[in-house]
Amino acid sequence: MSERKIPKEVIEEVERLREEIEYHNYRYYVLNDPVITDEEYDKLMRRLIELERMYPELVTPDSPTQRVGGKVLEGFKTVKHSVPMLSLDNTYNEEEILEFDRRVKKTLQEAEVEYVAELKIDGVSIALRYENGKFVLGATRGDGIEGEDVSENVKTVRSIPLRLRKPVTVEVRGEIYMPVDEFKRLNDEREEEGLPPFANPRNAAAGTLRQLNTALVAARRLDSFIYYVVHPENYGLKTQWEALQFLKELGFKVNPHSKLCKNIQEVIDYWREWEERKKELDYWVDGVVVKVNRFDFQRILGETSKAPRWAIAFKFPAEQARTRVLDVTIQV
Ligand SMILES: CC(C)(C)c1nc(N2CCN(c3ncccn3)CC2)c2cc(C(N)=O)c(N)nc2n1
After folding, report:
1. Is the CB of 311 under 6 A from ligand 1?
2. Does ipTM surpass 0.90 in this model?
């Protein structure tokens, strides 16, 4: 077929619709503060879907119409992480977190060290790459060295931007999670279909991200919190706190409860506060991730083969594990 000339005004309308729809996605799914009604949004989306159907050559991978899924993949390609995705060592009580602080201060020869305390979202780790502000790759953590390319599924997560608010080339990392009320809805649905329920929201999110049918992923409400910038020094960032602000400026959903702590005591107070308050949240958290704030200090502390020395997970006491009691009963 000869190259059909697409009228200029069609190309302009498609580009304008994309920008507008992605802006409203950002307002609704990231800021939770929409400025148009659902029907106005649907009208914009229907118009863009119609124009892309009339002119398929206009469809781009980062078009908001890709969020509704509709592809059935053969499998997932393996992708090597630009920088390994590290694990976290765990601490379970105040004595251990004080020991972490002592070790950090000893290595740094510093009397006072600031930390960023972040709720530890119980989800699935994800790495997201953008080129000139456009989404190009979403990968699971895998073994930390390489993961699976789940880009088509990641595009259906409405809080993950397909286009950043600044045209930067960057890789970021965070968690994709399933909100508790979506987890309950999904398990009710599975029960009706005679399918086994998911044990917890993390398994439900992981199982959803592994689906090869993207429409099915789009039908389940996954969400995200982004917490890490790869090579932050490339963007003039000097601390983790600045990195979280930078992520917000780019248009990512960043957990609103993170706290810049002057010292380890403030971290402990935060941990105690959220041990109580976590029931207010509509997502599961299993602790607090404690990070040395300054990147120059992080570089001095370095990392072991599997985990950074400048960060640690400060876990909440596990819910009373019923199975232990059950086992004893069976043994009797
Ligand atoms: C960048 C570092 C390594 C410090 C880091 N690593 C994390 N994790 C590593 C271990 N992970 C992991 N996952 C599966 C198997 C082994 N480790 C799961 C992510 C973080 C997880 C959360 C969260 N969940 O909310 C967070 N706010 N900050 C993190 N920061």
Report:
1. yes
2. yes
pLDDT recorded at residue 69: 81
Please choose, from the candidates 258, 309, 262, the residue with its C-alpha nearest in 3D space to the C-alpha of residue 114: 262
- Distance from the CA of 126 to the center of ligand 1, in angstroms? 10
Pocket of ligand 1 contains residue 175 by CB under 6 Å: yes
Rounded to two decimals, the pTM is 0.93
β-bridge partners, 294: 239
pLDDT value for 319: 75
Contact between 190 and 196 under an 8 Å Cβ cutoff? The reply is yes
* Alpha-carbon dihedral angle through residues 226, 227, 229, 232, given to the nearest 10 degrees: 150
Tell me the pLDDT tens digit for each residue of 289-317.
999 999 999 999 999 989 999 999 999 99
Per-residue burial over 224-253, b = 16 or more CB atoms within 10 Å of its CB, e = otherwise: bbbbbbbebeeeebebbbbbbebbbebbbb
Q: Rounded to the nearest whole angstrom, what is the distance from the C-alpha of residue 17 to the centroid of ligand 1? A: 36
Judge whether 214 and 152 are in contact, CB under 8 Å.
yes
State the catalytic residues.
Answer: 120
The residue whose CA is least distant from atom 9 of ligand 1 is 87
Mutate to test the pocket of ligand 1, among 82, 87, 252 (most ligand atoms within 8 A of CB): 87
206-220 as b/e: b if 16+ CB within 10 A: bebbebeebeebbeb
The reported pLDDT for the residue numbered 331 is: 45
Q: Is residue 118 lining ligand 1, measured as CB closer than 6 Å?
A: yes
pLDDT tens-place string over residues 121-171 = 999 999 999 999 999 999 999 999 999 999 999 999 999 999 999 999 999
